[in-house]
Amino acid sequence: MTDTTAGPAGAAHDRGEWESWCRRRERTVQAPYGPLSVTGTHWLAEAGTGGRIEGLPGSWSLTPGTDEVLLAASAEEGVTVDGAVLDGRTALGEDDEGYPGASRAAHGQRRLVLLRRDGQWAVRVFDPAAPAREGFTGIDVFPYDQEWVRAGLFRPYGEGERSVLVGNADGRERGLGLSGELAFTAPGHEEQEAALQVAVEHDGGLWAVLADRTSGVEGSEGSYRFRFLKTRAPDAAGAVTVDFNRLVLPPCAFTDHFLCPFPPPGNRLPFGVPAGERAVRSDG
Fold first, then answer.
1. CA dist., res. 64 & res. 51, Å (int)
2. Which of 144, 126, 130 has its CA nearest to residue 42?
3. Quick check: 9 pLDDT over 70?
4. Measured distance CA(116)–CA(95) in Å, rounded
5. N or C: which end of the chain has fewer CB within 10 A?
6. Which pTM does this prediction carry?
7. CA distances from 146 to 26, 192, 215, 264 (A)
8. Looking at the DSSP assignment, which residues form a beta bridge with residue 196?
C-alpha cells in the first residue's frame, strides 16, 4: 500500500516554481478572454421573442433533432462567424467545452461561445472590456508551505464513474461525474487518513472541488467558499503528489456568470487548508 503520510519534495513542487506558477495564474485570469472577461451566460431556453437575447445581436434558436444552434443575423448587426460577417443564417455547435479560443461567433471584440449543460444550450459572452477584468489587482494566496505537498493515493471506484447531484453557483443542481477517491493525510492530522471524491480529466489528472475550515471565513485566515484541486495523472499503483499550494479559486470567484459545482458530499474537510489561492483582489 502506498504511504500517504509524507510530503514528497521535487523541482516541480518547490517555492521558486510555485512563485512562477502564481504569476502565470494571474496572467491567465486577466488575459483578454480569461475568466475575468465573462459578462454573461445566457440560456437559449430563456430567450425572448424570436430567439432574441438582451444585449446580444442576432437570433438564437435550437434546431430540432440536431446538436446545433441556428444563429440568424443581418449584416448591419455586425455578427461574424469564422471571421466573416453573417448576413443570413448558420448552424453552430458547441465550442470545445466553452473555450473562447475555439469560438466561431463574435461581435466586435466580444466572443460569443456556445456551450451545453444537461442538454440545455447557452451563449457565454467574453468581453476584453469587462469591468471585472479592468478592476482586477491580483490573487491573494496563502504563504507557500512545503508541508502541504502531500503523498496521495487514488482509489478508483470499482463500478466506474458515478454521478452525484450537486448544487451549482447559478442556483441549479446538476450531475457531477466522479471516478474515485484521493486519499492523503494533512499536516498535524497524520493519524487520520482523509479522502476527496475526484474526477479523472482528459489528460489522466485528478480534479476535485472541495471546502475546508478556511472556506467562507473573512480575513487573512480565510478563503473563498470552495476551491479546485488538480493533480497530475497517478502512476500505475495510484500514487500521486497532491500539492495543496496549488489550490485554485473557481471561475465563479472572478465573475458571477459561471456554473461552478459546489463540493460533493464528503469533500468538506474537517480541518483548515491554509494553502493555495484564497481570494480575488479588485479595486472595483
1. 14
2. 126
3. no
4. 9
5. N
6. 0.89
7. 22, 20, 21, 27
8. 182
